[in-house]
Amino acid sequence: MLDIEVIEDPAAAEASLDPIRTRILQELAEPASATQLSTKVGLPRQKVNYHLKALERHGLVELVEERRKGNVTERVLRATAASYLISPVALASVAPDPRRFSDRFSAFWLLALAARTVQEMGKLIAGAAAAKKKLASFAIDGEITFRSAADRAAFAEELGVAVTRLVDKYHDGGADATASGARKHRLVVVLHPALKENMQHSPEKEQDND
C-alpha cells in the first residue's frame, strides 16, 4: 500500500469522489470483505459489492486474499493507498499551465506551480514504485511571522538572492552533464499567507490588508 496515490485517470477520479466510495476507501485502510464493510458503512452487502467492483475496476482497491466459506468465496480487499490526491492530469484540458504566468508575486502562478508539482510527483512516484526504487526528493515546511509588508518583501528579495546563489553554485549546465550521469531536478520555492484559524472550515476568502 502506498502512503499517497495520485489519481490521473478522470474516470478513477470521478469514482473516488463519490461519498460512499470515499468512505469505503477510508475503511479499507485495513483489509476487509464486503460483509465486514456493510456493517461499517451501513449498506447491504450487495450495494457494497457494487461499489467495490467500481473501485477495483479503476485500480483503487486490490485483492488481498480469497476465503472459502462453504459454497461461497469471500473476497478480502484493501485500498491501494492510505490517501489519494487527484492530479491536474485528470482535468488536462483545463489544468493550469505555469507558462501562462510569469509574475513571481502572482497567487495564480503559485497555484499553477503547485498543480505541476502534483502532476510530476505523481508520475515520479508511480515510476519509482514500478522500478522498486526510492525517489530522491526534499521539502521544507514552516511558518514565519512578519511585522510588516515591507519586512515580507525584504525577506522575499533576500530569499530569491540566496536561492539564485545556490543554484549558480551547484547547477551543472555543461554540454556533457547528462552523459556524466547528472540529472535535472525541479526547484520550487513558495511563500504565502497562512490560513487564519477561523478560516480552516470557512468558504470565505482571506484578504491581505497589508
TrEMBL record:
Organism: Arthrobacter terricola
Protein name as it appears in the record: ArsR family transcriptional regulator
SUPFAM superfamilies per the UniProt record, alphabetical: Winged helix' DNA-binding domain (SSF46785)
InterPro entries: ArsR-like_HTH, WH-like_DNA-bd_sf, WH_DNA-bd_sf
Gene3D superfamilies reported for this sequence: Winged helix-like DNA-binding domain superfamily/Winged helix DNA-binding domain (1.10.10.10)
Pfam families (UniProt xref): HTH_20 (PF12840)
